[in-house]
Write a structure and sequence with these properties.
Radius of gyration: 22 Å
Strand content: 15-25%
Number of strands: 22
CATH architecture of the largest domain: 3-Layer(bba) Sandwich
Distance between the termini: 30 Å
Shape: globular
Number of helices: 13
Oligomer: single chain
Structural class: alpha/beta
Helix content: 25-40%
Number of domains: 3
Strand order of the largest sheet: 1-11-3-2-15-22-21
CATH superfamily of the largest domain: FAD/NAD(P)-binding domain
């Protein structure tokens, strides 16, 4: 539950700065172990980048991150079993040669990794289809530690070494990875790319019902009353206290900084700040859905600014009022920084081709630009960057792991375990899970 910043009780075993996914994940692990926790959040709401705006019955995400049913932390994080996920139709639509072509359709089978094998229906020739299906099925079957043991190079340098023909790489693999990684230049670590592609092959892309903020709001609501204090901005942090702007000092035994990378570097001098991939999310509405299916369309960003798009109201009807369609499109790279009017004009022209629909009557509801949307993961990238800086001071977030919802949740769990170890509290089951993850 949330409490007002005017409450005066400041003491706790652990103070967590930031009520995003990492901070809330850490809070759940710590409170479950009997540790008292206070979570301080500068914004008037929880979630960090995982927030959703409300406008005339529409629910508009500010983030471009997609969930995946293969994310282990969606199952392991306490409370998220109550989360309702709205899956996309398996596979993706790739817009090429003037039409949308599905990369794969599920077959009615209970065999493991059905989605990966089903991708053998991609648009390449028969032999190419078999190669694609085999490559993805092989990656889906690999344990995560085997993926992390591979040589690490920029993803763009590894695409041609996967035994796939050029038309399959350029027509499917490259644009898919650009969208999933929010990295149009594919400078991302090949290990991280393989982890993301492995998840894609093993699970289903999905959206949380009701908006991205459903995830942090559910986590916050299940914490002990008064744990999360919104509207409190931290100005300093050390091993035994957090200083705030206008709300005094919060004393504690340990501090966990769970903010975004830029804010964390301001609170912890010397902490390395990564680069970022900028993202702009465009939300349009139309009287009729331009596509009546729950599909992710990979637009590629080659003939327009949009990397991928979807009719969000077809995936999750709760996000739009009755009688209106919600179309959400994601813009990456330099195009994300264009003025809104110019970006909207270029996006509409591209989306008209992608959907085969007149977009001139669409209404732009919102354009959310975030220059720090996704922390960059250039090769070589350590997906288990240290969360323990010294006894009593810890840091977590997607910038300490992989730049995904999975990475944020997992880094919070790692930080909580490090705190418990230093406090002398054993958590054997978590230790085993961390080694297996």
């Amino acid at each position: 539950m949330l409490s007002s910043a005017r409450d005066t009780a400041h003491d706790a075993d652990v103070v967590i700065v930031g009520a995003g996914l990492a901070g809330l994940s850490a809070a759940h692990r710590l409170t479950a172990a009997g540790v008292t926790v206070t979570v301080l959040e500068a914004a008037p709401y929880v979630g960090g980048r995982m927030t959703t705006g409300r406008l005339d019955g529409f629910r508009l995400d500010r983030t471009a991150q997609l969930l995946n049913t293969a994310f282990p932390e969606l199952l392991r994080t306490p409370g998220l079993d109550a989360l309702t996920l709205r899956p996309f139709t398996p596979g993706v639509l790739v817009h090429a040669d003037g039409r949308n072509q599905r990369t794969g359709e599920p077959r009615h089978s209970k065999r493991a990794f059905t989605t990966a094998r089903a991708l053998a229906t991609a648009r390449a020739g028969g032999l190419d289809q078999a190669r694609l299906g085999t490559a993805l099925a092989r990656l889906a079957a690999l344990p995560a530690h085997r993926v992390l043991a591979r040589p690490d190079r920029p993803t763009a340098d590894t695409l041609t070494g996967r035994g796939l023909p050029t038309r399959t790489v350029e027509g499917f693999l490259r644009p898919l990875l650009e969208s999933l990684l929010c990295d149009p230049d594919l400078t991302t670590s090949s290990r991280c790319a393989d982890l993301v592609l492995r998840g894609y092959a093993r699970g289903r892309l999905c959206l949380p019902e009701g908006g991205a903020d459903a995830v942090p709001e559910l986590l916050a609501a299940l914490l002990p009353p008064g744990t999360v204090r919104t509207g409190v901005r931290a100005e300093s942090a050390c091993t035994t206290s957090v200083g705030t702007a206008g709300h005094g000092e919060f004393r504690c035994r340990s501090v966990v900084v769970a903010t975004g990378a830029r804010a964390a570097a301001e609170l912890i001098p010397g902490l390395r700040m990564p680069g970022f991939h900028p993202v702009t999310v465009l939300h349009h509405t139309a009287a009729e859905p331009p596509l009546r299916e729950a599909s992710l369309i990979i637009a590629g960003g080659r003939r327009g600014p949009v990397a991928h798009t979807m009719v969000t109201s077809e995936i999750d009807p709760t996000r739009a009022p009755a009688g209106r369609a919600l179309i959400t499109s994601t813009v990456l790279g330099t195009a994300a920084g264009l003025p809104t009017a110019d970006l909207d004009r270029a996006a509409r022209a591209q989306l008209a081709r992608v959907y085969g629909s007149d977009t001139t009557t669409w209404e732009l509801l919102a354009a959310h630009h975030d220059p720090d949307a996704v922390p960059a993961m250039p090769a070589p990238h350590d997906v288990r960057r240290p969360v323990r800086l010294l006894s009593g001071l810890y840091v977590c977030g997607d910038h300490r792991d992989t730049s995904t919802v999975q990475g944020a949740l997992f880094s919070g769990r790692r930080a909580a375990l490090a705190v418990l170890r230093d406090l002398g509290i054993r958590a054997p089951h978590d230790s085993e899970e961390l080694q297996a993850a």
